Amino acid sequence: MKRRDFIKNTIKTAGVLSISKFPKQLFADDQKLYANDIVTLGNTGIQTSRIAMGTGSNGWRGSSDQTRKLGIKGLSDLLKHAYDRGVFFWDSADQYGTHPHLKEALKTIP
Fold it and tell me: In sequence order, what are the beta bridge partners of 60?
């Protein structure tokens, strides 16, 4: 057997062995998932959208890309748009400076 064939066969065998020992529950499920699916966080009973919308890209010192480029009205409108489409898990922090933007968006949420 040539060295190259030996290495190929060894890699194939290692791959097969690692897959067979891989926990079945970690394989992808057949169910199609969507960003706006509502999921429960562990055993807490808290439900939220599967995906979160961040408000602090390059956020630090009380400012972020969203606050600098969109302003209060723009980011508020974007958050409301996400909410209307089922995304209601919003990430915010003092570092991002987005609390006034979220406050404005929440005024329009029932």
Answer: 63
Q: Which of 77, 84, 83 is nearest to 101 (CA)?
A: 77
pTM of the model: 0.66
Query: Which residue type occupies 38?
Result: I
Look at residues 37, 69, 40 and name the one whose alpha carbon lies nearest to residue 51: 37
Strand pairing category for 52-54 and 89-91: parallel
Longest dimension (CA), the chain: 72
CB contact at 8 A, 105 and 72 = no
**For the ranges 5-14, 22-31, 45-54, 99-108, which has the lowest average pLDDT?**
22-31
As a whole number of Å, the end-to-end CA separation of the chain is 71
Give the distance, in angstroms, between the CA of residue 30 and the centroid of all CA atoms in the same chain.
20
C-alpha to C-alpha distance for 12 and 24, rounded to whole angstroms: 20
62: which residues sit within 8 A by CB, 6+ positions away? 94, 95, 96, 97
Which residues make Cβ contacts (< 8 Å) with residue 74, sequence separation at least 6?
none
